[in-house]
Amino acid sequence: METTHASLIIRLAWEDRTTFEEIEERTGYTEAQVIALMRRELKPSSFRLWRKRVTGRVTKHRKRFEQRLVPEKDDFEA
To answer: How many CB atoms lie within 10 A of CB 30?
Structure first.
């Protein structure tokens, strides 16, 4: 893999607002491939920090993020 391409994927993966779906659209790398690349390219402590940061993060998954943007019915009841 080209170093600049790996650097782009790593930068996108660290960004909170860039979803895995957007990364796949821009680079062709699936979520699993991004995780494998991060594991291979980062120091072990940096990889653990990144995984802790993105695991369960709503903004890294487009579907979860869009679901959070739609208010629940209960939000309108007072």
So the answer is: 13
Phi-psi domain of 54 (left: phi exceeds 0; alpha: psi -120 through 50; beta: other): alpha
Provide the pLDDT confidence category of residue 29 given band limits of 50, 70 and 90. Answer: very high
Domain boundaries, the chain: 3-70
Q: For the chain, state the CA radius of gyration.
A: 15
Q: What's the CA dihedral at 2, 37, 27, 18 to 10 degrees?
A: -130
pLDDT at 78 over 60: no
| Confidence bin at 57 (pLDDT 50/70/90) | confident
Cβ-count burial of 71 within 10 angstroms (0-12 exposed, 13-18 middle, 19+ buried)?
exposed
Q: Which residue is it, tokens 């080209």?
A: 2
